[in-house]
Design brief:
Layout (H helix, E strand, L loop, with lengths): L11 H4 L3 E14 L2 E14 L3 E5 L6 H8 L7 E6 L4 H6 L3 E4 L11 H9 L8 H7 L15 H13 L5 E5 L7 H16 L3 E5 L3 H7 L2 E6 L2 E6 L1 H9 L1 E6 L4 H13 L3 E7 L2 E6 L2 H11 L6 E4 L2 H9 L5 H13 L1
Parallel strand pairs: 3-7, 3-8, 5-6, 6-7
Antiparallel strand pairs: 1-2, 1-4, 8-9, 10-12, 10-13, 11-12
Helix pairs in contact: 5-6, 9-12
């Protein structure tokens, strides 16, 4: 994928400093046959101009609904959403916001270039068609029918369309869905160029490696709430901690006793035996290592930093969500 070194048409003062997105007490309720479903439960979130933010969460977490409200595609039932100080639809109409969504918006019987020219005609001052095709890495596909494009190529076409209004904010919902490894790498190379030019980028993804390598900041959403917000390193250290592993005893009974001991230690999130070793993750690896080595005679100690995958799994387990942790804490206090 090639880029042209494009510089956004708006001044640096317009694209840096201040809040690009400001969500305060944001809620969204959907009515179904079985009753109301609260998909977003009071999200407070600020994204500063120029940030690159990844939004993570399991299916049904509320992340897509939240992004839909940022884009003005649906209205909140509670709280407020502001984009560059405006209502989301106003910011979109002004050309300050564009999106790359998973589906929709493409006419199968048009060529790639015809699609971009058609959408460009709806803007007062769009970026040049040839330029956005080049920046999206699909200039060579201009004459191809959309129906003949792969899923990944159609995603890059949506990216080209998102660049037409020269937006200050790009919102991407699973932008690399349908792309192979090479296409994903090329897509993120292009996004790095857009971010370097001063754009704010907010993206939802199921690929944790994308969040780990591309985002300045990660927001984890679960059950309609913000579960964690910080850099990858901050989330790893606060939630995943460091992982401690020792040789597991060969005797089954001794092995089970050691697992039970590990799980009972303060701050331990998980303890399991795989590949002949006991693996323990928790918030205080020093205390875990000392207990296993000194108090229980374990051997073969290794300590490694927890991964983003570990942190994500810990944060999104039902028992670790805020509403469930509160119940647990209250129970402890009444004992």
């Amino acid at each position: 994928m090639h880029t042209t070194g494009h510089t956004p048409g708006r001044s640096a003062a317009d694209t840096t400093g201040g809040a690009a997105i400001e969500l305060v007490g944001l809620e969204k309720t959907f009515r179904t046959r079985d009753g109301d479903v609260l998909a977003v439960r009071g999200i407070d979130l600020t994204v500063d101009a120029g940030e690159v933010v990844a939004v993570l969460g399991p299916n049904g977490a509320g992340k897509t609904t939240t992004l839909d409200m940022v884009l003005g595609l649906t209205e909140p039932t509670g709280g407020t959403a502001r984009v560059f100080g405006q209502r989301p639809r106003e910011a979109v109409t002004a050309g300050r916001v564009a999106a790359v969504l998973q589906t929709g918006g493409l006419l199968r019987d048009l060529t790639v270039a015809e699609t971009v020219r058609l959408v460009a005609s709806t803007y007062a001052a769009p970026s040049p068609v040839d330029e956005v095709l080049e920046r999206a890495g699909i200039a060579h596909l201009g004459a191809r029918l959309v129906s003949k494009c792969s899923g990944g190529e159609q995603q890059r076409l949506r990216f080209a369309l998102a660049l037409l209004p020269d937006p200050d904010l790009l919102v991407l919902d699973e932008p690399t869905a349908g792309m192979d490894v090479t296409a994903r790498r090329e897509f993120w190379d292009a996004m790095h160029a857009e971010a370097a030019a001063g754009r704010t980028v907010v993206f939802a993804t199921h690929y944790l490696s994308e969040a780990d390598t591309f985002a300045d900041r990660i927001v984890v959403i679960g059950a309609g709430r913000v579960l964690a917000d910080g850099t990858t390193a901050e989330i790893r250290s606060r939630v995943a901690g460091r992982a401690v592993s020792v040789d597991a005893p060969a005797d089954p009974a001794a092995r089970e006793r050691l697992v039970a001991v590990a799980r009972s230690l303060p701050g331990v999130a998980a303890a399991e035996v795989t590949g002949g070793r006991l693996h323990v993750t928790g918030t205080d690896s020093d205390a875990v290592a000392r207990a296993l080595l000194v108090d229980h005679g374990a051997h073969g100690l290794e300590v490694v930093a927890g991964s983003l995958d570990d942190a994500f799994a810990t944060l999104t387990r039902p028992e670790t969500r805020p509403e469930n942790r509160t119940t647990s804490d209250e129970t402890e206090q009444t004992r």
